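ugh ok fine here u go
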Amino acid sequence: MSIATPIRVLVADDHPLLREGIAAVLAAQADIELVGEAGDGREALDCFRRLRPDVTLMDLQMPRMNGIESIQAIRSECPSARIAILTTYRGDVRALHAIQAGAQAYLLKSSLRKELVETIRQLAAGKRHIPAAIAAELAEHIGQQCLSLREVEVLQAAALGYSNRDIALQLRITEDTVKGHMRLIMDKLGANNRTHAVAIGVQRGILEVGPPL
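structure:
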């Protein structure tokens, strides 16, 4: 009787404790083998090239190269790569960008204990896995107006603490134009005020969290 070859998995996340937790879960599965770990997006790309895993688990926010950039690089070299995003966020923009980049599964870190193993098996079998909650949020926001590039720039500046006057100087527009952009931003996001708009922007993945590395 032949023994099936285990599903070979690569995990990329900049938190060692999360990688250890995933390793412990996978060690108990006879049909899954953890073949590599990476602590940032660039290392994930290097590991993928060297190991050619059946399934890659990719964190969204990592130093040097983020998860979406790493997915794009991997998929450009290997269009058949099977990749699941690992993330804390339920933001629809992040989900959409990850799927557009080529991810076939979206795993919330809070649900790993329940969904990790089955998702790996589904991916290895050529299937997709988008949690119902994420799919519902995508459907909910798909018809909403998107922020323009200028509106994103204004919101990003607001998130950094700039006043309307400072934003106007930085973007070389009038202060009244900045105020107009902020009104439109709050309307599109359903925000009550400027701070609420920034919070929604972070939650939905419209804004970058922290300075770029």
